[in-house]
Amino acid sequence: MKKVEIFGTGCKKCLKLEENCLEAKRISGSDCEISHIYDLEEITSRGVFATPCLMIDGKVIVTGRVLKASKISEFLK
Amino acid sequence: MSYIGQAFKSLNDALLVMTWLSDLVNKLLINVFKIDETGALFKGLSFFLYDVVKIFILLGVLIYLSSYVESHFTPQKTKKYLSKFSGFKGNIIGALLGTVTPFCSCSSIPIFIGFTKAGLPLGVTFSFLISSPLVDIASCIMLASIFGWPIALAYVIVGLIIAVIGGTIIGKLDPKKYIEPFALAPLLNEEDALNEESMTKRERHSYAINQVRDIYKRVWLYVLIGVGIGAAIHGYIPATIIESILGDNNPFSVIIATVAGIPMYADIFGTLPIAEALVEKGVAVGTVLSFMMGVTALSFPSLVMISKVIKPKLLIIFISVVTIGILITGYLFNFYGYLFI
């Protein structure tokens, strides 16, 4: 099961990214686990240094911007 | 005037000052709505309509173009490039990069931490942090459309100087005393500092469009309010009142303007119309620039975020350095402003 992680302290962009991830999960039908990390210390200890950031199974997909649900779903297949 | 000068002026007038728009609005008000062109209502309405439309057009085009360009400056690339420089050069490059990188204020803290963890000197990171909100491509061009290029460029250069000097001063401090430990802990392994795929043209286009949509959503009310206030000043408040508070004769005008600007966290695009109206009413250029710098350089939300990473003493030093820089700028421009107008 793929592990989808969104990093962001709560501003609009990271919330939108999370929204798009949920939509991507729905589109792709993938059985992935989605979590949102808000805590600054945890965010930076993972090596993320521009939010929002999206990681799937520990690999960075995008930093600093929001990806469309359709694009995210490609990574979930 | 030389041909090039003429051509530039025509282009400037058409695209940035939009004299055609002002004429159009005035014709509309006079011929269609039959408003008396000598009255205060006309002045106020004319300014309001012209400015709102102009700002939205400029905003859309500028944000699109600058976002497209800025999308090339990813955090990783920026960090890699910046880490090649040290000392004063680092401060300069840091300040310059701060102007062309698109990071929103919510990511300024993670970026600050990331740069610090990557070993970038404290001063360099702060130069970046100071110039980032203060100067950027889009607002520079908007400034030019309102105040002309000499002032816009002077604003950029001064903003960069504040960033470089501020960063240098802060760089003399010992980071361990002033930064929370978790931000200083080095990255576990360099692998974690991450690779990302590069953007296609379509992705850059859609990113830029989203930035425009974002800005419109975020800013439309502020622009209307800002232009509204500007229009009221323009049409209804007599110059004398404003001049007595903020004019050349009041030595405290710069301080008042800066102090007023700092707690505000409206977007710079909302303050531009107010600034425009104030200048027209005779407020000194330096005072107005101080106000705008106060609004952009120090915003309450990003200060709250920064306070999670740096200790109170450094926060105070940071705020003081930037504020003093802004005050000096204001007074300097007031003294030498006549060179630009």
3D architecture notes:
Chain A is built from three helices and four strands. Chain A has 77 residues and is an alpha+beta fold. In chain A, helix 1 (12-28) packs across helix 3 (69-76). Chain A is globular. The termini of chain A are close together. By secondary structure, chain B is an all-alpha fold. Chain B is built from 18 helices and no strands. The model of chain B has no long low-confidence stretch (mean pLDDT 80).
Which geometry of chain B do the CA atoms define? globular
Through-space gap between termini of chain B: 18 Å
Structural class of chain A: alpha+beta
Number of helices of chain B: 18
Question: Could you list some keywords that capture this structure?
Answer:
heterodimer, A: about 80 residues, alpha+beta, four-stranded mixed β-sheet, 3 helices, B: about 350 residues, mainly alpha, 18 helices, about 0% strand, globular
